[in-house]
Amino acid sequence: MSSVSRVFRSARPRQGSPGPGPTALGAVSQEEINGVLLSRLLASTKTDPSLGLQGFEHRVFSQFGDDGIIAYLTSFVPAECRRFAEFGVEDYSESNTRLLMTRDNWSGLVIDGSQAHIDTIRGRKDFWRYDLTAVAAFVTAESIGPLFEEHGYTGRLGLLSVDIDGADYWVLKALTAVEPLILVCEYISAFGPTAPITVPYDPAFRRLDAHYSGLYAGASLAALTRLAAERGLRLVGSNSAGNNAYFVHPSLGVPLPTLSPAEAHVPSRFREARGADGQMLLRRADECLELIADMPVVNVETSQTISVREALAL
User: Fold this and answer.
1) How many angstroms separate the CA atoms of 114 and 120, rounded?
2) How far apart are CA 127 and CA 138, in angstroms?
3) pLDDT at residue 14 above 70?
4) Are strands 155-162 and 178-186 parallel, antiparallel or unpaired?
5) Distance between CA 146 and CA 136 in Å, rounded?
6) Starting at the edge strand that comes first in sequence, how are the strands of the sheet with 107-112 ordered?
7) 251 burial class (0-12, 13-18, 19+ CB within 10 angstroms)?
């Protein structure tokens, strides 16, 4: 019998046994239990840093293989820093930090702009199990610091995950209340590996309102790497999907090399671009850049506002 089969069999109630009841498991599904057990098994077999960051990937709750990457990187975080924060979580069914909470019992702060999403999180029958603070708030550069301070999230933080499909760069720049040891940040792969650009700051930014294609949002990997370096964090790679970059503090001693944005950049294969009629075009973002070529971006090195066309030499 394989080790995976043994893990799953051990999680099933024995025949004739009522199995774990609501008192024991609340609303935790068998699928969730199996996912957590499988994550432990995979994490125990993927320990070789020569594999590179993507060699640690596996997925339980994350959109892509980020759960495995995060499990590896957080194994270097000291016990006193086992807290996370993530904003842009929707209803938390798919997120970068949920496995940290359910598998490793980290404390956390999650923020989303939808009250309905936060109500869903708080309404889970197993919400009482975890030290999770769920807050409904539209995140801006002006509000992010006070939000963290209000809920007691200041100082050193094990992991910070940023994905708001908008003013990510500007919000992260304004968030000085915490000092993350690990930073996970979504980058816009279509902006290329070297141009240090971001959309201009707009506190009311909404991706589809800004441009019908949904392509105009966020920041390039080069821009985020520059910002992370200002916080003393080094770039160690991206996930294989080409949407999340990983930065770590040198004090963790993670045995992965520091990479340049060009070395870490992964072209995403998402086909989520939309036409003016709102229909999906089923073409990769880098194939649709002409749609947003005349939209403005800020070069964070020069502070100049230029067009996407100028920034990427389209």
Assistant:
1) 10
2) 22
3) no
4) parallel
5) 14
6) 132-136, 107-112, 83-87, 155-162, 178-186, 244-248, 234-238
7) exposed
Q: What tokens were used for 254? A: 């993670």
Tell me if 143 sits within 8 A of 137, measured CB to CB: yes
- Any idea which residue has 């370096």 for tokens? 229
Q: What does the block give as tokens for 236? A: 């160690």
Token pair 């971006």 is found at 297
Rounded to the nearest 10°, the torsion over CA 78, 228, 88, 211 is -170
- Sign (positive or negative) of CA dihedral 205, 221, 226, 85: positive
First to last CA, the chain: 56
φ/ψ (deg, to 5) at 127: -60, -30
pTM of the model: 0.88
List, for residues 73-129, the tens digit of each pLDDT value: 999 999 999 999 999 999 999 999 999 999 999 999 999 999 999 999 999 888 999
Measure the CA–CA gap between 46 and 139, rounded to whole angstroms.
36
Could you tell me the domains of the chain? 46-312 (3.40.50.150)
Render the burial of 228-248: b for 16+ CB within 10 Å, e for the rest.
beebebbbbbbbbbbbbbbbb
